[in-house]
Fold:
Amino acid sequence: MAKPYINFVHPEDRKLTQSKLSEIYAGQIVSGFENRYLCKDGRFKWFLWNAVPLLEQKMAFMTARDISDRKLVEEEIMRAMESMEAASNAKKRISRQHEPTNCARR
Structure:
């Protein structure tokens, strides 16, 4: 409570987090918003947020779900896809190098 919440948001996510909070203050429902928060151990965890403004009460009902494991799996899938693409490109380059040339004989 001694520090503003924004100090716990990952630096790369702060601008978007503040933008989403402004949307909530303006009365908009926010759903599916993802950002990272700093934990006590110094690591960041990913959260998926949904928020419904309650303007008459000057508050919002917000829920967050830890999606850190999902994000790790997504990262692994992306790395695997990049590796497969690199291997495919290498195979194409090798195939082109070994193709017979179509030189006309005289």
About this structure: The first strand starts at residue 30 and ends at 38.
